[in-house]
Write the structure tokens for this entry.
Amino acid sequence: MTVKLHKFGEAWGLADPSPFCLKVESFLRETQIPYEAVTFDPKRSFALAPKGKLPFIEDENEGIIGDSRFIIKRLSRARAIDLDAPLADRDRCVSFAFRRMLDEHLYWIGVYSRWLDEPGWSVIRKIFFARIPTPMRTFVVPLARRRMVAALRAQGIGRHSRDEVYALGKEDLQALSTLLGQDSYFFAADQPTLLDLWTHAFVAEIVAPPIDSPLKNAALSLSNLCDHYHRLQNRLYA
Ligand SMILES: N[C@@H](CCC(=O)N[C@@H](CS)C(=O)NCC(=O)O)C(=O)O
């Protein structure tokens, strides 16, 4: 059995509107693990998801696994794959810290720009709820937004002013751009390592959607980061 990847589905020319789903799919493609994508079903997907979130996978040997980090770790271990093999120990640590920054910090700034700020909210509400039957949409949409706003406050990003939020996001992008420098892949590796897959996913979700924001402008001003996004997009999804 191939791996079944449960994800939301294509949006904006990307394999998925979630950076977590996108990086898992990129990992499957880069490592050439055969997989089948299972698109979000509002009635089943979250109920099946072990952590109540997407992505999750079903794998013959490993069972059902939720959370992109555990998915990638378990698939790597089971198949003796180490995408970070070219890296020295110190670079592995730097990669680890930057990946955490993307998962736990830049992600929330993306959430802010999509769910709280405009024009993000007007753009995503049309796409994210398209598969919810019309009568249900009236209460599902405001409820989902209230939950995300509460999550942003609990996480902390939602307590800052708009300028402060985007200033924090710009710092993350600038740090990624400086670390990458003029190399094709991080740490001057010959092929993508984990941080390349992570960065591609998070930059893609800022640059590809038609959401004009200070975060997108910051990403677009960093040409090496944009070139890196296109390089990975061509390598994995052309
Ligand atoms: N730490 C998780 C995060 C996954 C996550 O936050 N997924 C979001 C979409 S980007 C989700 O499914 N949200 C649904 C919800 O919170 O109800 C991972 O790495 O997979």
Observations:
- The pocket of glutathione is lined by residues 18, 20, 53-55, 67-69, 103 (CB under 6 Å).
- The first strand starts at residue 3 and ends at 7.
- The longest helix spans residues 89-116.
